[in-house]
Design a protein that fits this description.
heterodimer; A: alpha/beta; Glutaconate Coenzyme A-transferase; eight-stranded parallel β-sheet; three-stranded antiparallel β-sheet; globular; B: Glutaconate Coenzyme A-transferase; three-stranded mixed β-sheet; 13 strands
Chain lengths: 231, 212
């Protein structure tokens, strides 16, 4: 079945109040075009799950600055002073996880399981006593799986069956989120016919993907950020 | 030589040939640029790279390839790219030989605080907790005192901890100090400073080797 959708139709499926996973670690992997369309359409009361908050006026920071996001589940927002300020003012609820724990919670959900045991952060203020259990003489923290209604994913290449390939450090959370969300919306600049890619090179099989949006061009959002270039 | 250059110049000597190394955000990421171009080490970046290397010239820079601090990097021959779950599996399975990491405070027991100053700074812990807790050898890079001249090497950390008893060695702009079961042992001085002067700038009790 062809999964091609227009940008507008793909994003219009997301209702206000939805929980949305967004791929990307910093710029690479951030689906800017899908996010910018969500800004344009204006859905509100969103819960976003993303490694970081991008940088001010960029990526999901636009959704947050626009008042569309009630809650952000993340690992580190140190590169976004604007979102830190909104958090400190109480305008957005931010929940932090250690980065590998966030990845593993999403991976666990994507594998159809419900939680896992870990020794990460057992003695940290991040860990609450209610999450700790004894099992066969050892102490563990219970981490629950993390699901979402939607995932927004940037793929370097895709076919219209929803088979996906990523590039560079843009892989990061994307294949995990593509497995963990109920509805997966993908953007790509390079959409091919099924059969174009070698089957063993595909990162995410099309079974996890619901909609594929073909981008006409990559906007400036995807380009080099000058302040991360070493002088 | 600036304070930062002194720390980085000494830090680079910690990396052994053939090792797998993570360089934390801040001072440690800059260590990469002090490594000789033919140095045999694989740099891990927690956003999904094993084999990251120095930034390319602007015309060859890849906008889809950054380190965990957001800086553009290149790849060495033999590099691999993977998702965040795999990246942290490498960390939690203790496949990193060395992590260098920054600090707000580090103490005589090797406890590390580097992620939160309650009421002032709380951008999230990122990958620091797992790196500190699980890396085979953790070397802290830090200025010896903060901008107000207050010691950062303490008897007991006061800020929320990143991880307990995780630090093996501290490299400051003044000295190289090992965390031992008996306490902090000064191994090298990086400037001309007396034992008493160094102790004055350090809250934790220091031990000095016999020949000092």
């Amino acid at each position: 079945m062809k999964k091609n959708r227009t940008l507008e139709d793909a994003i219009a499926a997301i209702p206000s109040g939805a929980t949305v996973m967004v791929g990307g670690f910093g710029n690479p992997g951030t689906p800017f075009s899908l996010i910018n369309e969500l800004v344009r359409q204006g859905q509100t009361q969103l819960t976003l799950i993303k490694n970081d908050a991008n940088e001010p006026h960029h990526g999901i920071s636009r959704l947050i600055e626009n008042g569309q996001v009630d809650r952000l589940v993340t690992t580190h927002i140190g590169l976004n002073k604007t979102v830190i300020e909104l958090m400190n003012q109480g305008k957005i609820d931010v929940q932090f996880h250690p980065q590998g724990m966030l990845a593993e919670k999403i991976r666990t959900a994507g594998s159809g399981s419900y939680g896992f045991l870990t020794d990460i952060g057992l003695e940290s203020e991040i860990t609450q006593q209610k999450d700790v259990l004894e099992w066969q003489g050892q102490t563990y923290k219970v981490e629950m799986a993390l699901t979402a209604d939607y995932a927004l994913i940037h793929a370097a290449q895709a076919d219209w069956l929803g088979n996906l390939l990523y590039q560079g450090s843009a892989i990061n959370f994307s294949p995990l989120m593509a497995m963990a969300a109920d509805h997966v919306i993908v953007e790509t600049i390079d959409l091919k016919q099924p059969g174009h890619f070698k089957p063993e090179h595909i990162h995410t099989p099309g079974a996890f993907v619901d909609s594929v949006v073909e981008l006409k061009a990559l906007t400036d959002d995807y380009g080099i950020l000058d302040h991360h270039v070493r002088r | 030589m600036s304070v930062v250059e002194r720390i980085l110049t000494r830090a680079v000597l910690e990396i052994t040939q053939g090792s797998i190394v993570n360089l934390g955000i801040g001072l440690p990421t800059q260590v990469l640029h002090y490594l000789p171009d033919d140095f045999d080490a694989q740099i891990h970046s927690e956003n999904g790279i094993l084999g990251a290397w120095k930034q390319s010239a602007p015309e060859n820079m890849d906008p889809f390839l950054i380190d965990s601090a957001g800086a553009y990097v290149s790849l060495r021959e033999g590099a691999s790219l993977f998702d965040s779950a795999v990246s942290f599996a490498i960390i939690r399975r203790a496949r990193l030989d060395l992590t260098m990491i920054g600090a707000f405070e580090v103490d005589a027991q090797g406890n590390l605080a580097n992620w939160k100053i309650p009421g002032k700074f709380s951008p999230g812990i990122g990958g620091a907790m797992e790196l500190a807790q699980k890396t085979k050898r953790l070397v802290v890079l830090t200025t010896h005192t903060d901008k107000q001249g207050r010691p950062k090497i303490l008897e007991h950390c006061r800020l929320p901890l990143t991880a307990k008893a995780c630090t093996d060695r501290i490299i400051s702009d003044l000295a190289v100090i090992d965390v031992t079961p008996e306490g902090l042992m000064v191994r090298e001085k990086l400037v001309d400073i007396s034992n008493d002067e160094l102790q004055d700038k350090t809250e934790a009790k220091l031990m000095f080797t016999a020949e000092e």
